[in-house]
């Protein structure tokens, strides 16, 4: 698929709370590393977060969404996938103490694309953590950034069991850069649940089906994880609690109900290896840094959309993923330019392309189609929408036959609920 069809080549998604002291460095670094948009979900921040990000919001680089309450992380991730999967070629889901570091000097997207060429079925790249310690700092020194203050880490292959859970921790854990059109949802903060038979691979091409990857691979790309920082900052983090475990106090955390607790510092404060490579990377990336304007992005999307739909008009067929992306993009352009009739024509043509791509779908295609069905059924083209509804009923019945034979009973029930809704819909 033409990458110019997407509004963003790589977007970062993060949920945060009171990260005002750290967010500017995190944003600036990742812009240099090739990120072109950030979806930030604010979990009840009470600091100066909004004031700090205001210039980035005004420049069209940050979309900030208020996400109050406990256990908000996976809701935020789900909403980001639902709302933006067709506008971002790649998405990454990380925290504010994590920095994606391509050791090859490439942008993050260049490194990820190179890895994904190893396996056509791969829909994500699993990137191992590299855990950085406190550099012996007890107190917080905010006169310098995180990357300058903490330059010592654990050995590359350092792995330790997580207390009270008996599962691998340390550098074995991963974060994922992924194709959001191949992902259903997240069930933990590290790796998603993919549609169909899709999966992630590590930088060597090995398949990764869990939240960790062993042996640890960090020759080409790593997630530098500044988990503890100074002791003072770690204690503040404990008191704040976690976005995926709302309502925990310091006392309940120290009983083992939350792995981010006061004893965690002693275990994860590893400083054996000096490593300031990310600083040199940041300097090198800054030398030729530039960002396209919103006008350039929209013009590129328009041109790519015209090329693809022109090929379709000449009889070329393409994947459901491409057709659905064209539909989403054409709808976005129609909303931005409501008086330009071209985009309504593009939208109708894209919906026709969706209908034309429904033969021989794989399971991941079916799942993607059904996730987008509420949007498709709301389009103002009654004949095409009714045809799509009837086609989806047939596809669902065929898929349920497969699920019955294969014993996929949870999916069977979910699809049956969708079928009943479609049967009732007029």
State the main characteristics.
two-stranded antiparallel sheet, 2 domains, 426 residues, Spore Coat Polysaccharide Biosynthesis Protein SpsA, Chain A
> How much helix is in the residues?
40-55%
Please give the largest β-sheet.
Answer: 10 strands, mixed
CATH domain class of the largest domain: Alpha Beta
Q: State the total count of DSSP E strands.
A: 14
Low-confidence stretches: 246-258
Tally of individual helices: 15
Summarize, please.
The protein is an alpha/beta fold and 426 residues long. It is 45% helix and 16% strand.
Q: What does the model show?
A:
It is a single chain. With 426 residues, the chain is of the alpha/beta class. The protein folds into two domains: 284 residues, Spore Coat Polysaccharide Biosynthesis Protein SpsA, Chain A; 131 residues. It has 15 helices and 14 strands. Strands 1, 2, 3, 4, 5, 6, 8, 11, 12 and 13 form a ten-stranded mixed sheet that branches. α1 links the parallel β1 and β2. The longest helix is centred in the C-terminal third of the chain and has 25 residues. The chain is globular, with a radius of gyration of 23 Å. About 3% of the residues have low confidence.
């Amino acid at each position: 698929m033409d990458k110019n069809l997407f509004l963003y080549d790589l977007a970062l998604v993060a949920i945060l709370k009171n990260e005002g002291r750290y967010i500017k460095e995190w944003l600036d670094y990742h812009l240099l590393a090739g990120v072109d948009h950030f979806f930030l979900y604010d979990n009840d921040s009470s600091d100066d977060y909004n004031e700090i990000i205001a210039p980035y919001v005004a420049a069209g680089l940050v979309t900030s969404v208020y996400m109050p309450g406990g256990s908000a992380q996976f809701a935020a991730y789900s909403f980001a996938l639902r709302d933006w999967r067709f506008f971002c070629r790649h998405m990454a889901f990380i925290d504010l103490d994590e920095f994606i570091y391509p050791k090859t000097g490439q942008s993050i997207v260049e490194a990820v694309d190179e890895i994904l060429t190893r396996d056509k079925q791969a829909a994500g790249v699993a990137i191992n953590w590299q855990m950085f310690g406190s550099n012996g700092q007890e107190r917080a020194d905010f006169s310098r950034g995180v990357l300058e203050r903490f330059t010592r880490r654990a050995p590359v292959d350092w792995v330790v069991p997580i207390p009270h859970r008996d599962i691998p921790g340390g550098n074995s854990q991963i974060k994922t850069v992924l194709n959001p059109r191949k992902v259903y949802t997240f069930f933990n903060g590290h790796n998603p649940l993919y549609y169909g038979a899709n999966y992630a691979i590590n930088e060597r091409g090995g398949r990764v089906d869990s939240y960790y990857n062993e042996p640890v691979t960090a020759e080409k790309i790593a997630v530098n994880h500044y988990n503890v920082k100074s002791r003072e900052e770690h204690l503040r983090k404990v008191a704040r609690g976690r976005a995926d475990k709302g309502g925990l106090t310091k006392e309940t955390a120290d009983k083992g109900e939350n792995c981010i607790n006061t004893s965690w510092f002693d275990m994860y404060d590893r400083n054996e290896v000096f490593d300031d490579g990310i600083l040199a990377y940041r300097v090198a990336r800054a030398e030729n840094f530039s960002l396209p304007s919103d006008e350039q992005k929209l013009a590129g999307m328009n041109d790519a959309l015209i090329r693809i739909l022109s090929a379709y008009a000449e009889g070329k067929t393409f994947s459901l993923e491409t057709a659905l992306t064209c539909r989403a993009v054409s709808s976005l352009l129609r909303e931005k330019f409501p008086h330009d009739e071209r985009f309504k024509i593009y939208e109708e043509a894209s919906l026709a392309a969706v209908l034309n791509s429904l033969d021989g779908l794989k399971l991941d295609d079916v799942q993607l189609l059904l996730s987008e069905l509420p949007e498709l059924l709301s389009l103002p083209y009654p004949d095409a929408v009714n045809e799509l509804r009837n086609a989806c009923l047939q596809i669902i019945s065929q898929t349920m036959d497969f699920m019955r034979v294969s014993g996929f009973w949870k999916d069977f029930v979910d699809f049956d609920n969708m079928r009943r809704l479609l049967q009732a819909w007029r």
